[in-house]
Amino acid sequence: MTVEPARPARAPSARPLPAGPLPGGPDRAAAVPGPPGGRAAWLAWSVGVSVYVLAVIHRTSLGVAGLDAADRFGIGASALSTFSILQVLVYAAMQIPVGLLVDRFGPRRVLLLGILLLSTGQLAFAFSESFGPALASRAVLGCGDAMTFISVLRIAARWFPAARNPLVAQLTGLAGMSGNLVTTVVLARALHSKGWTPTFTAIALLGAAVFALVALLLRDAPAPLAPLAPAGTPAAPRLAVRRQVREAWREPGTRLGLWIHFTAQFPGNAFGLLWGMPYLVEGQGMTRAEAGGLLTLLVLANMGFALLFGRLLSRTARARMPIVLTVIAATGTLWAVVLAWPGGHPPLWLLVTVVLVMGTNGPASLVGLDYARSHNPVERFGTASGIVNMGGFIGTMITLFGIGVLLDALTPSGAGPYAADAFRWAFCWQYAPLALGTVMILRLRRRLTGAPA
Length: 453
Description:
Blueprint: H1 39-60, H2 66-73, H3 77-105, H4 107-127, H5 131-145, H6 149-159, H7 165-194, H8 196-217, H9 238-250, H10 252-283, H11 288-315, H12 320-340, H13 348-358, H14 361-374, H15 381-410, H16 420-427, H17 431-448
């Protein structure tokens, strides 16, 4: 495949960085050496990733509060799923605009704006007493959440050598899982001991400390490299923005990355964001503590597989597609066994196994971002990453909505509690986006490698 050479960055004094190469990968050759990494790079990444950890805490807070939200607002499964659907919809819709903002103004400014939106949305959610205001607050929260992950990836691309980017991306996902761990271990307990408003208010106020950290310590790039967009840089003409998006989308690696992210991420994401706790408590008869233990296991599995996949991808790019296809096949197979179990009550060992397998979903989805990185020049990496990062959250949104609608349709009262059989049939909905995504991955994989489509 012929790839256009990377164009120089917009700032005249900027030294362009290579988009690759990964060992054994299809990346273009670097014209100049990239940044050396080192302690300063890890410091910059650590400050940036603290915002992502905060965003994951905000994002997943509803996962342990779903039953409480249903009682507080007097809503059923369809309305409850609307919270997460709207949050994910806003997140996905913001990915390309955020990518463009990061490419133009740098990740530091975008992260600061993201923190403000996260804190505002969560504070409003803490004091909401009816469905409408609470829904609007989750939309604001989703907007702030959308500004974090791409910004951290851009920081990594500017501070670390290209060959280390797959590992740093996986470490970013691992760090985000620590935010999920805070949610399942700390937030779940605080919610039931301190109550709704104090718990969510405390989360919102965490943003002040993280905002100060970013404002004081973070730089967009190492000193020898020019910033992505100097202060006072005017916005590019609309035509340039369209061209930026169009050229990123035209790259087969970008489109393949989107479908990898779409297919690999959504099963674990939908389970952890919303439906895991209701499924385990109402469908499987577990206590909240037992269900929380399995959700914590999901987070720990994500962290372990992130380290494993990161090391494999740093050694060779040939591991990318085998990892993705293995994860998709294992997830689909294990859920088929769980859902087909007689009576709808699989044994604990099987539930533990499917949770462990879903722990591979998030790390495998990041392979899609690696395809975007290795097939786009650095000056449009934020835009390409935004396109790819939409995928998993679109898949999650489709899954959340489908399961919620089916649960209500399969329950005579139209509201919880939901029976094990209702959960079993509703969770079968996962196979629709799983099949679509797998077909698109196989099709684009052949096109990317030059085989007949």
